[in-house]
Amino acid sequence: MSLLHIGTELRRFGRGKLPPIALSVVMLLPLLFGGLFVWSYWDPIGHLNKLPVALVNSDKGAMIKGKHTVAGDQIVDKLIESKAVDFYQVTPDDAREGIANGTYYFAIELPTDFSEAVASANTPTPHQATLNAVFNNTNGLLGTALGNQVVTRVLATINENLGSQMVNQLLVGFGTIDQGLHKAGDGAAKLKEGSGKARDASGKLADGSKQLGDNLKTAKDGAAELDQGAQTLATNLGTADDAASQLADGLTKLTDATDKLGAGAGQISNGVNQVVGPAQTLAQTQQQLLTLLINLSGQVRGLNLPQTNQFADQIDATITTIQTNGIPATPNPDGTDPLSQLTKLANGASELHRQLTDPNAEYRGGINKAADGAGQLSEGLHKLSDGSQRLVLGTKKLADGTSKLAEGSEQLTSGARQLADGLVTLDDGMGELALKLNESAQKVPAFADGAAKNFSTPVAENTPKDSLGIFGMGLTPMFISIGLFLGATVTFMLLHPRNRRAIDSGAIPLRAVLAAYLPAAIVGITQATIMFLVQRFALGLHAINELGLWASMCLIAVTFITITQGLNNIFGVTVGRVLCLALMTLQIVSSGGLYPPETQPAPLRWFHTIDPMTYSVNLLRRMIFGTEALYDHRAPQALLALIIIFTLFLTASILSAYRDRRWQMKDFRPEVSL
User: Fold this and answer.
1) How far lies 417's CA from each of 46, 424, 427, 521, in Å?
2) Exposure of 188 by Cβ count < 10 A (0-12 exposed, 13-18 middle, 19+ buried)?
3) What is d(CA 328, CA 282) in angstroms, rounded to the nearest whole number?
4) Which distant-in-sequence residues (6+ apart) come within 8 Å of 88 by Cβ?
5) In what side-by-side order are the strands of the sheet with 86-89?
6) What torsion, rounded to 10 degrees, do the Cα atoms 190, 196, 198, 199 define?
7) How far apart, in whole angstroms, are the C-alpha atoms of residue 392 and residue 389?
8) For position 15, what pLDDT does the model report?
9) What is the number of alpha carbons within 13 Å of residue 661 lying toward its C-beta?
């Protein structure tokens, strides 16, 4: 007999009506877990928007920035708009009644002080706003668990909206500080530039004030000298005024004398014409006149005035004329005869008469002008004397003023130097101020648009590889494993786990085991194939490796067939079926298909390492979601583990077949078949 001979085990289900139906039911039974369970839990999270939840807004509002604001209204609008769940805005009494009778799974309430708590951030007593969530476990444990997730989402939505608004106000203040510091820094820089110019100007001012002080000292000395000179001038002008008066009087007398002299000159001229004798007398008189004129010229020239100098020149000219044309006081050495001398004398006497009497004559005109000039000189000197007195008073005041000005200039010089030193310090301080303001402006953070969201929600979720998939896909590996193990268990409720005929015929144990195993394996592969097709085309499960998923399901099915066959063969059908159900339960809770094994009790964590369903779940996960072979070795580990388990239980069946070749007393009294 061939090892792979199937025998007649499956043929008996081809006769009649019920056997084929029973075999079909066995093949479809794994779909209870692998199809129905997966379908029913396919995407409960995605349908949370159908979950009825009561929303109660008890917020009474608060004064925010001088305006009565009800923050709860904004939150309610946001929550309803989000459609996270099916919110019903109701009163507190309606919410309480709805939770009690199951109308709502839970309720969310915004308390009366919600807005007040939100606005308390700007008060001396800030406190957090609260959100009241009311659950009722009689509405279902998973409903409560989903409600907790919804409340977490609601809190995130509220914190994101309120946090962004509050942080945005804070960042606006930071932005104002930053702008103010930048403006202050720019102003300080400009002020530093201005203070630098002022410092330079103050240096020049200090130098100028020093020069001014030196010059004012010189001016003070000059003013004192000017005052002394003015006094001397006034004294001299007084003397000159007196002299001018005397000169005027003298010239008046000279005029009178000239008149008389002219008359006498006329008489002399007439006398010279009559008599030569008086010529000598005339010569002497002429000499006296010259002496008088010389003295007069010296006196007039001593005045040292333009008019008097001109007058003195005229007198000198007259003297020269008289000396040249007049009668010499002594006889000429050339021996000129007396007649010629008398003639000349007569002519000179005539000319003298003319000069002395004719206003148009140079002498008489000069005398007249000298007399007039002397009068004018006397009058002018008198006025000049009066003015010099006023000049003395002015120079006195000037001297006093320049003295005070010199003292003030010393104070100005000292103040200008202090100002220059102060401006140097101010310039340095302005530079330091500008530097510190700019450094402070750089230290004050500047925030771009949208920064408020970053501050209120600093961390956002980013899933670079696998995102949270559909809930049903996550449960699929475990439900497929449960379905296939259930199918393997039920299969041997319909098929015989061992072929007694083959054992009694003396066939080798392996052949006897395969005679019962191969029909069951065909059923298991059929179960896996049907489940795969339902998953793929009915539920829409798209695995990363679909062919690998089908092959893995077939491998798991035949492995589970060996397990259930081995238990039935080793412990008998009755005990074996009970053990299969118990093992299935233990595998479900230890496989890590629903909760991580680290969260479970220690015995389950220990059994997890040898649990066949652990490796079936791991293998199916890698086929559905993919794997990184370089880092993840759980797929080959699962394959190896399933092959080892397959080998162990197949060996156990072979040993039990070898054991059953010998009849025992219990075989003559078989157990009641269940």
Assistant:
1) 84, 11, 15, 113
2) buried
3) 10
4) 52, 53, 54, 55, 98, 104
5) 86-89, 52-57, 106-110, 132-135
6) 160
7) 5
8) 63
9) 17
Question: Integer distance in angstroms from the first to the last C-alpha of the chain?
Answer: 31
Tokens of 499: 């072929």
328: DSSP letter = -
What letters, b where the CB count within 10 A reaches 16 and e where it falls short, cover 314-346?
Answer: bbbebbebbeeebbbeeeeeeeeeeeebbebbb
Count of CB atoms situated within 10 Å of the CB of 542: 11
Alpha carbon distance 372, 598 (integer Å): 143
Q: What is the mean pLDDT of residues 573-583?
A: 86
pLDDT in tens, 247-275: 777 767 777 777 777 777 777 767 666 65
Angle at 29 (CA atoms; ends 23, 30), nearest 5 degrees: 125
Write the single-letter amino acid at 440: S
* Whether 560 contacts 484, CB under 8 Å: yes
Tell me phi and psi for residue 95, to 5 degrees.
-65, -45
Is 172:70 a contact under the CB 8 Å cutoff? no
Q: Residue 75 has which token pair?
A: 């939150």
For residue 467, what pLDDT band results from cuts at 50, 70 and 90? very low
Q: What percent of the chain has pLDDT over 70?
A: 61
The sign of the dihedral angle between the CA atoms of 57, 63, 64, 66 is: positive
- How far apart CA 513 and CA 503 sit, in angstroms, is 9
Distance CA 472, CA 470 (A): 5
DSSP letter (8 states) at residue 599 = G
d(Cα 171, Cα 168) in Å, to the nearest integer? 5
Torsions phi, psi for 91 (to 5 deg): -85, 165
What does the alpha-carbon distance between residue 151 and residue 103 come to, in Å, rounded to a whole number? 18
Question: What's the confidence (pLDDT) of residue 11?
Answer: 58
Do the bridges between strand 86-89 and strand 106-110 make them parallel or antiparallel, or are there none, so unpaired?
unpaired
Query: Do 326 and 348 contact (CB within 8 A), yes or no?
Result: yes
Q: What is the tens place of the pLDDT at every residue in 196-218?
A: 666 676 667 667 767 766 776 77
- What is the pTM assigned to this prediction? 0.52
Residues whose CB falls within 8 Å of the CB of residue 515, separated by 6 or more in sequence, listed in order: 5, 6, 7, 9, 499, 502, 507
Please list, in sequence order, all residues whose beta carbon lies within 8 angstroms of the beta carbon of residue 408, skipping any fewer than 6 positions away: none
Using alpha carbons only, what angle is made at residue 433 by residues 431 and 437, rounded to the nearest 5 degrees? 120
